[in-house]
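General statements about sequence and structure are easier to judge against a single worked case. When preparing material for the folding task, we compiled for one chain both its residues and its backbone structure tokens. The amino acid sequence and the backbone structure tokens for this protein are reproduced below:
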Amino acid sequence: MTEPRLPDGTPFPTLYYLTCPRAAAAIGTLESSGLMREMEARLAADPDLASDYHSAHESYLAMRADLGEVPEIDGISAGGMPTRVKCLHVLIGHALAAGPGVNPLGDEALALLPEWWRPTSCADADHEGSPDGDPA
């Protein structure tokens, strides 16, 4: 998690970042597929989805408020919430941090990802390529 205020005092609304390059690349592929436009169209047409997504926005704000109040970004979450779909990286990060059932579009995008953690975890990604675990 990223604190809601950077060390220099700048307000910063984004809490969650995916640091695994393989996960980020897989999400980038989803973003370039047009999925975000489709999700946003569904938000406009489906009141239940829109309500659930608004609840995800509120959850995000509550999680950030637990880290500290920053009046400059009050009511602003990230990823386009609560009415747009702007960044699947943020929505998936929120879904992973909050758990299933909190961010419906984050959960949906997460389910569409390939098994990016295989053959090893992202923590082991620097040591892939040789049988003894040393970088190739």
